[in-house]
Amino acid sequence: MKPGITCIFTITLLLIIILTVSAGCISPVQQSPASSAVNVVESPPAVFKDQEFSFQFLRTVGASYSGEADIGECLATASRIKEGDFESWYSEWKNTADTFRTAGDKSLAAGHRRTAMEAYYRAATYYRTAEFFLHGNSTDPRIVETWGKSRETFCDALALDAVPYEIVSIPYENTTLPGYFYMVDNSGKSRTLLIVQTGFDGCQEELHPYAVEGVKRGYNVLTFEGPGQGEVIRVQNIPFRSDWENVIKPVVDYAVSRPEVDEDRIALWGISLGGYLAPRGAAYEPGIAALVTDPGTYDVGENLLRNLQEGGGAAANMTKEDLREWLRTDPAEFNDAIRKAMADDTGTRWLNENGMFVFSAGSPAQFWAKWMDFSLVGTAGKIQCPTLVCAGAADHFDPDGVQAQALYDNLTCERKLMVFSDEYGAGSHCQLGAFAQSFGAKFDWLDDTMGMDG
């Protein structure tokens, strides 16, 4: 990039990054049957004025639907948190998690297994929430410690639950990926399999509500974590990769090796950035019979570039390769500008800190350069299975709906675009906080597509 436009470019890019924090979904094409058409509005904060804190609170309290959080406990914890303060967030959620971990232990010791199980599930969620904003220092020992307590507590809950399951290790390159295999029963019968994966900032324990809903509907369910996610980044130190087909293939190979899996009836569901990862994998994996992108994500770099070009000035004639090439030089002016924005905005801080953590990037520029490789341009058309592209009308990660629409437009397979309005609170990212509407509409599509009884 020519030095003469660097300053203008940096200022323009900085403004765009603050306004467009991530790639998500929205489109007015088709409303889900669970939510009638209304004007698109941003949901008011439930507890916090800070948008990122408000969304993460909604994400946590939404687990109440499956009994893995409780509204009163969440509200009481939130009331003690200082707005926008990451340390306060950690301390209060950690205290709540410890409280209900201890309560579960006491219940188990007294022989109250169900009460212990329920307390453990809630504590696991609260530990996971506590750890969420710690990634600004990748060497902070609390990351692995708190994540480890969340997983341990979740596994203690699973051990007391009635749903058959197995903790599995999936062969991957020269290591393994962690997973949970949930079963309808212990019969060993070959059944339809639903594979569910998380995205940019999730752990697979958070996918438990999806697994439970799948089991209720007759699916065996496999969840897993790949590079950049959960245990794989925290313990194995393996960062994200854009060519996710090299992750999905070994996962599917493992799945079909199990007698409980009907190899002709495998569905794949990607959550959040999984709305890019899952279709990327499905494009090269003929064993996928149905795909849910939740929400649809088409091209991170193209979306960023389009916004820059619309800003005019020196950036108007920039190409995607110009942007990528400049970011790869790790320009100090870009990093300084982003770090200044991070100091002033919680969402920008979280996005860049977590991005550097999960990509093992040493600076914001290195993170963005790597993230720009996440593209389905020239790939989406290779997907052959029926595909559901989801979107939320109040999804603050992409309020213009560019990504879901672009993915839908570039699919050549059987496809459906399902947009959730916010009339009854289902318009947020991944419909978090509205599992009843979300599961009803998405699983009904999946049941119809896979020929399930539901």
From TrEMBL:
InterPro entries: AB_hydrolase_1, AB_hydrolase_fold, FrsA_esterase. It comes from the Archaea. GO terms for molecular function: aminopeptidase activity. Signal peptide: none annotated. Keywords: Aminopeptidase, Hydrolase, Protease. Belongs to the AB hydrolase superfamily. FUS2 hydrolase family. This is Dipeptidyl aminopeptidase/acylaminoacyl-peptidase related protein. It comes from Methanoplanus limicola DSM 2279.
